[in-house]
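Budget justification, computational time. The allocation requested in the original proposal was used primarily to generate structure tokens for proteins on the priority list. As evidence of use, we reproduce two of the resulting records. The first is shown immediately below.
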Amino acid sequence: MESTPSASSGSPFDMVSGALGRYIPRGAAARAAGSSDSQGEGPGRHRVPAGSTPGSAEQILGAVNLDRDLKITRSNLEAPVFAGVEVAIGSPFVDLLPPWDVPTVTRRLRQVLETGEPHVARVQRLRRADGSELVVSMSILPAAAPLEGLTVSLIAMAKRLHLYAAETAIGTSLDIGETAQSLAESLLAWGDVAAIDLDLAVWTGEVVTEQPRRRIRLRRAALVPDRVWPDGYVTPGDDLPSDASRLLSQAVRRDDVARAIVLPDRAAIERVFASARLVRALVPGDRAASVAYIPLVLDGAPPVVLGVAEVWRRSGRPFDDSELLDLQELVARTSHHVDLARQHQREHTQVLALQRRLLPRSSGDTIETASIYQPTTPDSAGVGGDWVNSFPLPDGRTALVVGDVVGHGLGAAATMGQLSMEARALLSAGLGPDEVLEHLDATVTLLDDAESGLAAGYSALGSTCCITVYDPVSHHIALSSAGHLPPILVPPDRPGGPVAARPHPGLGAEFALREPFDVHTFAAPPGSLLALYTDGLVEDPALSIDEGIGRLSDAVSAVHPWDALDQAARRVVSALAPARHRDDMTLLLARMIGYRKEDTATWRLPARADAAARARAVVSGLLGQWRVRDDTRVSVLLVVSELVANAVRFATGPITVRLIRTGQGLLCEVGDTGNGRPRLGRDGLLGDSGRGLHVVHGLTTRWGVRWTDTGKVVWASVGR
């Protein structure tokens, strides 16, 4: 074996060996690198006699160096606490492990080799020559250049040190499955098999309340070590049999107080379970001879039982009182981490449900849409405020909206839902995209006003939103954006790219930064594809944002005109999304269809007294060509006549009449240059003001007003 270099070399092996110097016997590093003469065992063999003097109890740190084949090249396990652990230079490191741990540890070792990311503080067992085992905290580090391979540090776990290390390690993830797994791995220091069974309400993130008489339903959340288990044994994700859940819940909640119980031998286990089926479901193999059940209790008045931790041992190793106290202390210290994971799971589920509810449900006659929402990975801080929506407007147009609310969790979700519904209501009321953004900007500012009592510690300042409105007659899209990334437009006859719209600050910007929102109008002929998205889809630490948008443009441009949009959206997201992303990803694809030319007609008339008669004449001729039923024809002519007469009376300038044949009926539009809002008069048909609108109101299924740059358009829908 090569001699151990000085600590100045800076390799992880030497740093681990040199750290905590008082924990390692003097000269141990040199002896670890010594020749066969110093070992007295033959070449390549390092053995610490099992009967060596224990020495200082503080000597707990050791290190092993591995090559890329995971074979041992150097070792420093001379601290007396490692007595009986045999290290053969050139042998696989996994020879030191129990057989059932070999697959998991091998996978961890190779993962660190491939990624270079350390794996820290894994609770692990090492085999001794006499058949006993030593519990250690194992960390896997990549070797520093010029060396290749790995350095594995091993800290023999004194019980108090283990309690501290376990409490520190548990709770680093907000995923309830990973939290339960960390707790189970920590419990292995006291047994051979550990399992965590959680109340189903905890697993699903529901509200947990104390009901002393209630029988809890248990689901297995974690089980270690990772091995092949007997047929019928309950493994992670499985529900315990109902009689097993009842038995365990009654056992740990005697007299309505949560208590730990111990079954000291195999006879007691079989006597208590009293069923061969329960033994197969709950006992991990024939060698399991004793078990300790420790309830996971959430402090309160009264306390709440979240589940049960199980620690199993082989025969000949009964639990003593001090060990049971240690187990109870560890579980008590970490139960609140399980509850935090439950709360996160609940919040995650609620926000995700809201996200799904906001996704578009169906496409219209003039546009086809498909959307994808992919939340962040489970170990993230929570679901964010990304949202998309598409919905038909009452006047026949279609709105496509995408937004990204700052932050994660319920605060962001509440703001997201409020902005989404407000945008839909204002667009349906006829406001333009720029006017809607002005209202959303005011809403975000109000929500951030602490005096209003609405903020509740959450700020949505800087949230972004992009609103597009598609006109299926003119085949144009009106766009306004508040700090959002530009949509991707793919025309039917050329490659796609981002829409060139002037950028604007996000919602709630400071007063000095506020500018009027622009409306950018561009053509989207039938067959065009529009992609709206949030930044999580295009942001990549290795790329600039422009490169990310370029990748998205290429992916959307590759969508064939005949491809189903649902499948195309999934392909686009999978092509761009990293395996583990730290932000939500949202994509909305819209394929423009529009109305056929033969289904629309537009006339421009001067604002004269005979305008209503001229409008009736041209519309009547078109209705004859469309073979409209007589009763519908009469209704349409009356509606057009009243709307044109109203425009002549209250507005100036030319009048535009447009008729659209839709799948549900006929849509009549009359535009003028006036800015007054038509309203139904209180006097009804008997009054002199607003009588025409009462006629329109009675003959149509719906009518309304939308505002334009030059005036307004009054529209009315007449069913066939």
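The second record produced under the same allocation is shown here.
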Amino acid sequence: MNSAWLSVPDGQKPDTTTLAVCFAPTGAHGSTFAGWRDRLPEDTALALVLPPGRGTRVDEEPVTDMAVYADAVAAGIRELRGERRLVLIGVSLGALLAYETCRRLLDSQVPVARLCAVAGQCPGDFHGRGEEVTVEDARAFVAGTGLTDPELLADPEFEEVLLPPVLADLRLAAGYDGRRGAVPHVELRAVWATDDPHVPEVTVRRWAEWTRGECTLASVEGGHYAHQENPAAVVSACLGTLPATRPSRRFVLGAGATAVASTVLGLGAVASAAPAARADTATPSKEDTSFDGDPTDPVALAVAMIRQNTSNPGDGAVTLPLARMLQDLFRSAGVGTEIVPTPKDGNVHFFARVPGRGTATKQPLVLLGHSDVVPATGDRWETDPFAGQIRDGKLYGRGALDMKGVNAAFVAALLRHVREGAAFDRDIVFWSDCDEEQGPYGVRWLLTEHPGKVSAGAVITEGGWVLNQRDGTTPMIASLTCNDKRSLLLRLETASYATHTSKPFSGQAVIRLGEVLDQLGQWRAHIRPNALSREYFTELAGATADEAFAGALREMLDARTDQRRNRAGEEVVRLSETPELHNAMLRTTLAFTAARSGYYPSIVPGTATAEFRAAFLPGADDPGRVVAELRSLIGNRATLSVVGNPGESEQEALDRLRGYLATPDSDHDTDVFHAWRSAVRRTHPGVRATACQFEAVTSAVPFREQNVPVYGMYPFTVNRDMLKRMHGTDEHIGVEALRQGTETVYQLLAGLRTDA
């Protein structure tokens, strides 16, 4: 049985239980899968997508709209599938077509057993901003693939048949924006060809962020068209059965894959490439929300939280399984809970409330954590980022530091008080936010959409650090942050002209971009500590045992000119054991996050762009002046623009940022601040406890705008290596430091008890 858009080749068994629908690469049609028929599993039938403009539909007008294409294929699949298990397989551009078709099938309640992306760029690589693709672009593409004899390309009749479908597909990709639409929940296999010059392994790995289900990375020998060069291996990678027990998708992806001659690396082989994990840290399934340990043990809690993969791809994380685990913990302790859904499926806020008792009249204290974490697929980890592995006294995993370790300390300390029958002088609310890293449904959304849900008297969230002396073991200073830096996204663009790679020229856009980035990377703002930073560095000068460091600190604080302050401040940074942290607390900083250019290997691109964030201290540099200074620095070699909210002008974005920077510091003459300072004295005798400026951004601003004091703490000791791995590879915290930090949180809450 065929449909207008699908064909089932003759000679296949009629009683198959699986239907594999194959999407061809750019410009191709079903014959590209000719080598697959004799290599399919016994229970599998093959269906080929037949787009117009090629093959048997050569006389029809090609489709250049992704939505039209995917809707048509999905309709054909619904007609053809019957009761069979459905697998979608896309090669190169076909991977995007399969992905969009999968979205539509799932939206119409048609189950998709597996989605396979072979040698394909992921949806996030396309933003619908491609320039109009020309016939010359199509001709260059065909020549660059190497699959067509150059003599045939010179034949006008052959070119007339070959180029229109290629041109249509290139335009299809140029107008595609993969960020539109929800990320589907589907099992996904991303297949990387070891000799692929166009789509490297790092690109294939990014597919993990485009499914909410399991994602497995496999590698096969071959180039970009390995499905033709090595069909048996690609068929096995796409249609091979999974073992009964599977490691988590992050374990597979984090371990990497190594090519073996003519062999797909199955899950077992991939897992064995990773460092051996302890037997007691096996990752549970994604749906497992149980916790069998002691809920007052912060280490066990942190491990369980890390094992819940709550990666945030940019539009919010799936946090419902973790919320259910927390709900079970608090309900078992007799504490009331609430899960508040957001418009995104599986993206939820979690609340637990311990009511104040007796004559409690004070507004609640909110322990504000966030359950989402940044992805862990961009760089190779030495450990599985979602196994919660303990090694050499350190707990490894995405979110160990930011901020599931803090969440575990909050929960364990609070439940310990509940177990003791504590009576607090106010309600204590634990709130786990779902969209702190990115996404539209975070703290501000909840406070706006659910007014009165959280009426806070004070908030404690992520923030200040506990640092050691130079010996690395003796605690030196603890800080509680009372304000955040705020950042501005800036975009840099260089332009020249596009041409064939055989004719390179001086002043290429990519080279110019690199030169400008190098210059911006050398730029340094003036050292300008604000009031909070001055308070912190004054305490640090008295806390450190390093006399040279203390002297530099005092010289910086006493300086009356920019020149002296800059010189002394640079010495402070040089002598600091945590130079990146202290540098960020003293000045405006630039952090470079992305660079993009090029869309085809035989084209020198005409433009190149980069994005970076400028982070500002409240009360220090004016954002508008910094932008003007950077523009003056780069001159006419590049265009620098401010990236604001949709529809926002540059001036509006700058004014909005100025408003954030003008938000007053949280008052540190409050009972909560004093309770924290007393807790530090009990858990870290002799250590100075001070108010501080946070070097990053948190969810505190909406509360501070309402004059609610917000304080930030990472209650455990950290060192430079731990700080550098925040949002980075092999993120970790110390196990004993986490226990001691939890004791600090416990002692802080003890200061609010009425039965003590």
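A brief technical remark on that second record: The chain has a mean pLDDT of 87.
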